[in-house]
Design brief:
Elements lengths: L1 H16 L2 H20 L6 H19 L8 H30 L7 H5 L3 E5 L5 H10 L3 E7 L2 E8 L5 H20 L2 H8 L20 E2 L6 E8 L3 E9 L2 E20 L5 E11 L5 E8 L4 E3 L2 E10 L3 E8 L4 E8 L3 E6 L2 E11 L3 E5 L14 H9 L6 E5 L3 E7 L5 E7 L3 E3 L2 E9 L7 E6 L7 H10 L5 H14 L8 H16 L3 H11 L2 H29 L9 H16 L7 E9 L2 E9 L2 H21 L3 E7 L4 E7 L4 H14 L9
Parallel strand pairs: 4-7
Antiparallel strand pairs: 1-26, 2-3, 3-25, 5-24, 6-7, 7-8, 8-9, 10-11, 11-24, 12-13, 12-23, 14-15, 15-18, 16-17, 18-19, 19-21, 20-21, 21-22, 25-26
Helix pairs in contact: 2-4, 4-7, 7-16, 10-14, 11-12, 11-14, 12-13, 12-14, 14-15
Length: 677
């Protein structure tokens, strides 16, 4: 009984795995997985997915392996089951297909022939040589069999049509095997057995342990490496979940020169890399130039041009300490970290990539609404409106930029983006610096006005003076004296006006325009607040003029006449000074020069399954051609002493079948009436 049950189970399992329904179910799952793998960007660092989807969806997608669908264990298992199912299906039907190809069905009876939809019987015995000659002319192969006093001629052509079934099924097997080869199934097995483990630490590749390194004879891989001009690498990095593997290469890749061409707008037009491929002894094996979609193949490894970027450029900064208002020169290198000190506070400066070109769409502000990135209150809006610039949307190359992070001793970081080239608007020049607190948040930009020498010196002198509480009384006294001289106040009100001016300067020094607004909300009734705000604004504008004059005098420089350009400079300086209270960084870094070092991003792949997939695709094309473009026709001619029965069948009943059957009747039995049934 046990043997019978075991045999029944094995038979049922064989029938399931070799069934068409099971194979179609697997193909449906593969199609769904392929859609996911196409829509969702694959094989990115996990931190990118966590930021994009959030912790909730990340916790669902990550266990399902949706971030690397084509290398996930469940996808590879589906491929393996599909290979198994298709092989069993071929094994199950192969004998029958071969029998059909080789067989002529010469044992067909007269009754079975008469039951065919295409048959014709005449009361005349045809000559056998005439029939066989006719069949040969039409490309039929035939076999004769004596059936009593009758002779049956069984003929066929197009039997290779049935090979289409075998070719298409074999194609599925071959393509899936190619997918398994490129899916690096051995690595997945080693990971499951803890023989190999992805590295998660940010350490030099030379310190990566053997458990996270893959030998150069690894079956397949797809990794990336960035090289600066003149540098070389013998490894690539493979993303794997929350970590990475170090893949050893069978050669050394060296970047000699990186080339890039741009359109007139500054957008990249073409980029290419001149490379040398060296053996482990340093001898050049092969040289060439690779471009996008034009890889170099070496030892079965394809080297693709994938990206480009900064390769560690030399940078020159002017560093303005916002606490002491002093400046110094800073020499640095992109993609490095430096200590940064301001007073007793210590920070870490993490310099990112230099971007020589920045093509951006600018949308200049309209005449209404918020006209400044730092105008966040009615008081600021009133000031910014007076010096806003109007225009239409336009595309402009804003020149080189540098991004960096300033991290405090608690590990909290703010990110900055500074432009080297002055931004010119209505004949005024500005230094542009942006700050953001979150990775995916937009930068909030601050425009700091530049002096006639395109430097920040005049602005920093103004900022140092107007925020210095020890100078507020002197500034207020100067402003009150000018107001008395102009008739704006009386002699009795001069002292009171100076006191009000000093109070406005003090409030501004505590936090810019928001500090004045908070003071007004606390001290001034709602009904009078707008009027008082306008008065404070006028007082601050007047005091700004005297603050600038005092700053120039203390620096031993001539006082600049207050014309329209100078007045605009002062108003811009007030807005910039206010916004710098929320800047976060202890210093402003102004990029003044750089020595660009380009880097090229390469993707190196070993894909032995690619040619296997090509073979499978060829088999699939052949199979489809056989099934759809080859028609299998079978023709029976049964010659009796006094009659002849002609019957024909095909795998597809079409008009071609009707016409060919009529042609056979016309040639073999012209002017012969069909015998009565």
């Amino acid at each position: 009984m046990m043997t019978s049950n075991t045999h029944s189970f094995r038979r049922a399992l064989f029938d399931l795995l070799s069934s068409m329904r099971f194979a179609i179910s697997l193909l449906t799952l593969l199609a769904i997985a392929s859609i996911i793998g196409t829509v969702l960007k694959q094989n990115e660092p996990y931190v990118n997915y966590r930021v994009e989807f959030g912790d909730f969806w990340f916790s669902i997608f990550e266990p399902l392996g949706l971030f690397d669908v084509y290398h996930s264990i469940w996808f590879l298992l589906i491929l393996a089951f599909l290979v198994c199912s298709t092989c069993l299906c071929i094994w199950r039907h192969f004998p029958g297909v071969i029998r059909e190809i080789r067989g002529y069905r010469e044992k067909a009876s007269a009754n079975s022939l008469r039951l065919m939809s295409h048959h014709h019987e005449i009361n005349q015995a045809l000559e056998q040589p005439t029939v066989t000659q006719h069949l040969t002319e039409y490309g039929y192969r035939y076999r004769l069999r004596a059936d009593g006093d009758a002779t049956l001629i069984a003929a066929k052509k197009g039997s290779w049509q049935r090979l289409g079934y075998l070719f298409t099924h074999a194609a599925i097997v071959v393509i899936c095997i190619g997918g398994l080869m490129d899916g690096n199934l051995p690595l997945k097995v080693m990971e499951m057995l803890d023989i190999k483990t992805a590295e998660t630490r940010d350490v030099p590749q030379s310190q990566i342990p053997a458990m996270s390194r893959l030998a150069s004879n690894n079956l397949s891989f797809r990794g990336n490496v960035n090289l600066s001009e003149g540098s070389s690498a013998s490894v690539v990095f493979l993303n794997s979940g929350n970590g990475y593997f170090v893949q050893e290469l069978p050669f050394i890749l060296k970047l000699n020169k990186f080339h890039i061409e741009h359109y007139s707008t500054g957008m990249p037009k073409l980029f290419a890399s001149d490379i040398d491929v060296l053996d482990m002894k340093g001898n050049v094996i092969q040289s060439g130039t690779i471009k996008v979609n034009h890889p170099l193949i070496v030892d079965g490894v394809a080297i693709y041009q994938a990206s480009f970027g900064d390769g560690g450029s030399g940078l020159e900064f002017v560093q303005w300490d916002l606490l002491s208002n002093t400046k110094s020169n800073l020499a640095a290198k992109s993609q490095t970290k430096l200590p940064l000190t301001s007073g007793q506070a210590k920070y870490s400066l993490e310099i990112g990539d230099l971007r020589p070109f920045n093509i951006e769409t600018l949308d200049k502000t309209a005449t209404t609404g918020d006209t400044s990135a730092v105008a966040v209150s009615p008081l600021q809006t009133a000031l910014a409106t007076a010096q806003s610039v109007h225009g239409d949307r336009n595309v402009r190359n804003l020149g080189p930029t540098i991004q960096f992070k300033v991290r405090d001793d608690r590990g909290q970081a703010l990110e900055y983006q500074n432009y080297m080239q002055p931004f010119v608007e209505n004949d005024s020049s500005y230094f542009i610096t942006g700050m953001r607190r979150e990775v995916h948040a937009p930068f909030a930009f601050t425009r700091i006005p530049l002096d006639q020498d395109m430097q920040l010196d005049a602005f920093m002198r103004f900022r140092s003076t107007i925020l210095n509480a020890n100078l507020h009384a002197d500034i207020a006294k100067r402003t009150a004296a000018k107001a008395l001289k102009a008739g704006g106040v009386s002699a009795d009100g001069e002292a009171q006006f100076a006191e009000i001016t000093e109070g406005v300067l003090f409030q501004f020094s505590q936090g810019g325009f928001p500090a004045i607004e908070r003071f007004l909300e606390k001290k001034v009734p709602q009904a009078e607040r707008q009027v008082v705000a306008q008065t404070y604004l006028k007082v601050l504008q007047s005091a700004a003029i005297d603050a600038m004059e005092l700053a120039q005098t203390q620096a031993g420089l001539p006082v600049t006449p207050t014309d329209n350009m100078q007045y605009r400079f002062l108003m811009d300086s007030l807005v910039a000074t206010s916004s710098l209270f929320d800047y976060g960084s202890p210093a402003i870094l102004q990029l003044t020069g750089f020595n660009e070092v380009k880097s090229s991003g390469f993707q190196l792949t070993r894909s032995p399954g690619k040619n296997v997939v090509y073979l499978g695709s060829l088999l699939l094309i052949i199979g489809i051609f056989c099934m759809f473009y080859i028609r299998e026709n079978r023709l029976w001619i049964r010659i009796s002493p006094h009659s002849t029965l002609i019957a024909m069948s095909s795998n597809r009943k079409t008009d071609d079948l009707n016409r060919e059957f009529a042609a056979h009747i016309e040639h073999l039995a012209p002017n012969q009436q069909q015998a009565p049934l």
